[in-house]
Amino acid sequence: QAALPPAMMKSKTIRYCSAINLPPMEFMSPQTKPEGVDIDLGDALAKSLGLNAVYINMPFAGLIPALLADHCDAIISQLFIKKSRLQVIDEIPYMFSHEAVLLKPGAPKVPDLEALSGKKVATVTGTTATVLLDKANVALKAAGKTPIDIVAFPENTQALQQLQFGQVAAYGVAYETARYYVHKVPGQFAMGGPPYFKIATGIGLRKNETALNQALSASLATMMKNGTYATIFKKWDLGIDMLKPAGG
Amino acid sequence: MADVLVQAERVEKFFGPNKILDGVSFTVTRGETVVLIGSSGSGKTTLLRCINHLEKIEAGRITVNGFLIGYRDRRGVLIEDRERNIARQRRDVGMVFQRFNLFANLSALDNIILAPMRVRGENRAVATERAMRLLARVGLAEKARNFPASLSGGQQQRVAIARALAMEPAVMLFDEPTSALDPEMVGEVLAVMRGLAQDGMTMMIVTHEMGFARQVADRIIVMDQGRIVEDGPPERLFNAPTHPKTRTLLAVRH
Amino acid sequence: MADVLVQAERVEKFFGPNKILDGVSFTVTRGETVVLIGSSGSGKTTLLRCINHLEKIEAGRITVNGFLIGYRDRRGVLIEDRERNIARQRRDVGMVFQRFNLFANLSALDNIILAPMRVRGENRAVATERAMRLLARVGLAEKARNFPASLSGGQQQRVAIARALAMEPAVMLFDEPTSALDPEMVGEVLAVMRGLAQDGMTMMIVTHEMGFARQVADRIIVMDQGRIVEDGPPERLFNAPTHPKTRTLLAVRH
Amino acid sequence: MHFDWPYFWHQLLEPDGAFIQGLWLTILISVGGQVIGLVIGLPMALARRSASVFLMWPARFYIFLMRGTPLLVQIVFIYTGLAAAGILRFHDFIAGPFTISGNVQAGILALGLNEGAYMAEIFRAGIDAVDRGQTEAAKSLGMVPGQILRFVVLPQALRIILLPIGNQFNIMLKNSTLVSVIGVSEMLLVTETINSATFRTFELYSVLALYFLVLTSIWGGVMRYVEWRMDRGAARGDTAVIGTLQGEHI
Amino acid sequence: MHFDWPYFWHQLLEPDGAFIQGLWLTILISVGGQVIGLVIGLPMALARRSASVFLMWPARFYIFLMRGTPLLVQIVFIYTGLAAAGILRFHDFIAGPFTISGNVQAGILALGLNEGAYMAEIFRAGIDAVDRGQTEAAKSLGMVPGQILRFVVLPQALRIILLPIGNQFNIMLKNSTLVSVIGVSEMLLVTETINSATFRTFELYSVLALYFLVLTSIWGGVMRYVEWRMDRGAARGDTAVIGTLQGEHI
Ligand SMILES: Nc1ncnc2c1ncn2[C@@H]1O[C@H](COP(=O)(O)OP(=O)(O)OP(=O)(O)O)[C@@H](O)[C@H]1O
Ligand SMILES: Nc1ncnc2c1ncn2[C@@H]1O[C@H](COP(=O)(O)OP(=O)(O)OP(=O)(O)O)[C@@H](O)[C@H]1O
Ligand SMILES: [Mg+2]
Ligand SMILES: [Mg+2]
What we know:
The complex is a heteropentamer, with 1 copy of chain A, 2 copies of chain B and 2 copies of chain D. Chain A has 9 helices and 11 strands. Chain A is of the alpha/beta class. In chain A, strands 1, 4, 5, 6, 7, 8, 9, 10 and 11 form a 9-stranded mixed beta sheet that branches. Chain A has a two-stranded antiparallel ribbon with strand order 2-3. In chain A, helix 5 (128-142) links the parallel strand 7 and strand 8. Chain A is globular and about 55 Å long. The mean pLDDT of chain A is 91. Chain B is α/β, with parallel strands linked by helices. Helix content of chain B is 37%, strand content 28%. Chain B has 9 helices and 12 strands. The two termini of chain B are 34 Å apart. In chain B, 48% of the residues are buried. The mean pLDDT of chain B is 92. Chain D is mainly alpha-helical. Chain D has a single domain, classed as MetI-like fold (Orthogonal Bundle), CATH 1.10.3720. Chain D has helices at 5-13, 17-49, 53-68, 71-84, 102-129, 132-140, 145-175, 187-198, 201-236, and strands at 93-95, 98-100. The model of chain D is unreliable at 238-250 (pLDDT under 50). Chains in contact: A-D, A-E, B-D, C-E, D-E. One adenosine-5'-triphosphate (ATP) binds next to helix 1 of chain B. Chains B, C: This is Amino acid ABC transporter ATP-binding protein, PAAT family. Chains B, C: Belongs to the ABC transporter superfamily.
């Protein structure tokens, strides 16, 4: 087993920063216990390293600042692997994610983001949906069309509820979360179209945390081999997001 | 009877459990100057305020110019009148307070024209014209633009008198108009009041200035513990008081 | 010279551009009672406060018991002393204020024992024992547990005198100790002061009570516009004043 | 510690367009909230002082509610809670070239309702501070309550409460950051957004703090000027009671 | 409108364990912040009144900074900004069975630093309100400044400022909700979390508002009792100046 950073060896604890607000990736049970794909993975990784896992809940936009501020040892919060992020942190890929647009049932489907021209669309501050919508706006402006009115909320529930109440027309969010709500609250939400923007997703680490990086990578590899990884994704019905199909 | 301007009949007034006015009756006829005296707490201020319905009364009735003040008589039962009607009745009664109470946010002139314009609906020119005449009468024509804070106490009180006169009241009530003044200003205010008396204004005056009272009063009313204990012309009261209270009051301050 | 307790030499004091004390010199010898008189604004209060270094002085020097007050003499140049040393010097000088200034948060007894315990490090028993004796002396033994707010003005001033005495000062300064009192309370405070004078306490008293001054003063100092204009025994000043100021001051209030 | 000075100066002196927009939104929201607070505050103060229980108790309850619960909770409650219950949903308000989006409306409304309670207490104290003799003199001249309020009491009360209201607006400027939780892109949310892309947290928040210091200092200067003008006015004698009520905030 | 009464009553009367924990955390944070505020406030007030510019100007600057910027910004700045710059990092504090996590510490610290500035102004006003004659009498007895402060001025100032401090704590209770943005699970964040699973927004926020009304009302009752005791004390004559300073908040 690889050596862990001394502080972690001493405390026997790994601290994950997470925006525990994005089911099914991470969310609070009615008893306010964290659960979800990332939580199961985080727990399994911790266990394989002989550590306890604790989750520090905070707004999504605060995750990387908090990691950099050493408020936690890693981010496990469906953090997409993007060039801009890799400039400040390292990421260990562990799954794919997709983006989606969530609508009210009955609303016309959206083939692409440009179709949201002139609409009010909710997002969560700091998420990739915001970036994609911004990009779409650049294209819309170039084409002389009305831009999308992006309203960024600090957390998912706020954004989602505004769609539910009709205070926004659409919600740009990870496909996994969108799908969860379509099933969880039937009749309230509808997918705007098939998932788009497939992107690798990783565990965020501070740069130069080589020891931790290696230990987590090794544990992940082991879990992929022994089926733990696949079990988790099956449990949450997210087979399409698996990095490598089990045994493959 | 046409000449009775103010009439109080068995007026009773309580503050909490304390009977402050205890069956007070008197009349003031047109053109009369009546001075009210009595030791502190005897109810002089309260009585004046009742005539204006600044205080409610619990029993009895007060009329000014024949109209019941503050109440409507519904088949013998008095019920309190509406604010708007009371306001209308108050126009007939001018009041001058111990502490002047000029409107601090208005100039002397504006203090005087506010009520004529807003209450009687006069236009500014008419109201201003009368106000300037009244200011001249109290000797303050050149202070029309001054704010109260820049006037002496005596000047403020004279403006206050002009303000009350501007509504052309039937009767003027004065509650110790000179007792908040420095001694050197008392004279100027009394002079104005003396002029009013000579011009035939009906007045009720609470004062401790016995010399002045003797000079201008047609009648002096003596109060003690909420009752009128003596009521008569100054000569009789000064020379042959019947009630011991009158004797002490006039003796001490004579 | 051993008997000179307070000595002021050519003291000058400014407030802003105004010269409040203008070359004041005098001495007070042990056991003397000196009364300071002068019209309002002549600098009496300021002079007393300088003796205590509650005010800085701009020129001259003041010594108490031979020690320079508020300053250190470094080769002829006076530099202001440290707070701690000034505090030490103040123990020798008791002061009684016009407005009593009893500590509002402490009982009469605690007012008296606070400084002995905290400044002189006495234990509570010793301090309390002396305090009770002093309270008895000013006639207030039974008020030891009362707070200032529940004492009359005269009682408060007597406690204030006891408080100052508890530090066993060499000299007591009184700044109009009776002028904030109702007339009926003046007597009880003057009686206490008279007792102190008889017991040989050295005292400087600012007062307008000329009868009292004549009775207890060994010397009277007359101030006018920041200067001492006359200084002598009361008999001479009352009977043959040389300065016109003395004449008006003693004549008016005699 | 590493502090990226060039980035700091750049953000401070040539901020992004989004940040400038955030600044305007901060000002818009604060002013809007204050105006609503003033508009609500006066009638509430009058109702609170009224002899009628049907006016007095609702006003009391409103003030109790607004002062007894956190502003942050009020903001979320008004934007999300009311919509969830189907009571009130906020839709974009379009006036010519300007659009005020729903969450901005909700934010202004929440700040305004909250402020209204504090304004009511300030107005009430101001009215109570006007000498009763003024009212009695006006009554004795035959004026009715509405006239007395308008021509005598309010003009004097306003002078008394000008400074407390000014202090409240300073608090309002700072409280406007709270509407970031409902996605209003005022300065704080813009800063968070920029930070989530650049991760220069310390530098960005320093700039944000400086902008707020400038805003509140400018307002402080305005207030000192007003105070000075009023003092001068008082010295000239064109006013009476000033400066009683200087405290009483959130 | 649909209001789920059974759910409302259930949450109100038998709230989740997490909510009760949030309530305790709200109280812990508020009390902690208030204690820090008091501890900072007094020396800052003394420094602010000091004749030494080396004490006076830093205190002035601190007060200016804390009162000129939004609390929300201060909270994020202290938790994330300081750590990002490598100045101060918050680690879990473990004392036996209790753990105070880093964000709770940061929240308490931020609330306390902010409160300290307001406390400093209250202490300053309170000390200034004690009659100068008291200090002069103490000086004339040979007491040094430290003794005068401790035995004479502070005991009297404390009576004056008890109520303003009480008002501040009421504000503190409400402001404690702001630390939810750094992930402290006080009542608001717990409510948001429960809401994200149940979507009974209106009911949940109503319960939250009621809990705050109860908290602030209880505290209001405590203050009225203290006020009554002090008035009675004043009537009995064991105190002098009370009730001068009643306003002056955030
Ligand atoms: N608003 C009030 N509430 C309770 N008691 C009052 C009130 N106003 C007056 N009183 C009481 O009524 C009594 C009469 O007061 P009033 O002011 O009429 O006396 P007064 O003859 O004018 O005395 P003064 O010469 O001192 O002005 C007094 O005992 C007074 O305490
Ligand atoms: N703190 C101060 N600042 C400025 N001027 C002062 C101050 N204290 C006193 N003065 C001025 O110093 C002069 C002397 O004042 P002082 O109080 O010593 O007079 P006094 O003889 O005690 O008068 P009184 O009989 O009125 O008490 C006065 O002109 C007064 O205005
Ligand atoms: Mg009277
Ligand atoms: Mg003096």
